Amino acid sequence: MATIARPAVVVPGSERKSAGLWQNAWYRLRRDRLTLIAFAILFVLIVASLAAPLLAEHVFQFRFEQQDLLKGYGRPTLDPPAYLLGSDELGRSQIVRLLYGGQVSLFVGFVGAFVNLTIGVVVGLTAGYLRGRVDDVITWFITTLNSIPLLFLLLIISAVFSPSPLTLTLTIGLLFWTGISLYVRGQTFSLREREFVVAARTIGASTTRIMFRHILPNVLPLIFVLAAIDVGGIILAESALSYLGLGIMPPTPSWGNMLSNAATYFVRAWWLVLSPGAMIFLTVLCLYLIGDGLRDALDPRLKTEK
């Protein structure tokens, strides 16, 4: 006797409704443990750096410029807690200076990335949408700028002007925008001929509105990926300049100049090299992992796994 198959019963709420790009991205990101761990570590580093004055006053009870010449090159110890990571040649607390150095290095990285992101997006949208002579001039300028090694250009600028942290941040931001600009330009080329852009142009939408209200939202998700990678690259650039003695100048601490100073007496106090080097490595690694995780989450070609 034939068995009649019963229709499958769908429990309300068990099926996953179709969602947009951001909902799908968040769905994937929540299941990417490595990216979430990288986010958590980076968040802790940022909070610890922002809370440096409070930690220095209430926990370590040691100012970042405070010196004790009798305790120079001190080994790591818990007595007092300020020397948890040792002390430098002037007896200054390594961990307190590391926290304050994080403020400078992270400020340079994030603000510099914001500057180059803003310039790169505007220039890329303009070149990709207007095309013609505007695109030719912008492409020529980007090609010329890319032909100059950026590290050597930064070295020349730092040697001539001896920039402050803010000036160095703006300088790096003004020189690192070309990669994002070329990416946005290429994406705009393909998007400007899509149906929704043609429709907006047909009903009389202005050029600015089409670029920033119709094209930019479709480019923005993957720009976040490039921005996360750029922050790591800018932190490395600042560290390289400080290591060469042309970045953030003492007594203002940054991870780069702390690493440079510690390298000069590596044989006598090798432990002083580890902490700033570890902070640079850990921050850049987290940013690269976040960038890779965002790329996987925001890629519309990837199907959401159930």
Structure characterization notes:
67% of the residues lie in helices and 0% in strands. It is built from 12 helices and no strands. The longest helix is centred in the middle third of the chain and has 37 residues, at 94-130. It is mostly helical. It is elongated, with a radius of gyration of 25 Å.
> What coarse outline follows from CA principal-axis ratios?
elongated
**Whole-angstrom Rg:** 25 Å
Low-confidence stretches: 5-18
Mean pLDDT score? 82
What is the structural class? mainly alpha
Largest sheet, in brief, is: none
The rounded distance between the terminal residues' Cα atoms is 37 Å
Query: Percent of residues in beta strands?
Result: under 5%
Q: What is the count of helical runs? A: 12
**Helix-strand string:** HHHHHHHHHHHH
Helix content: 55-70%
How many strands in all?
0
Please give a handful of descriptors for the protein shown.
single chain; 306 residues; mainly alpha; 12 helices; 67% helix; elongated
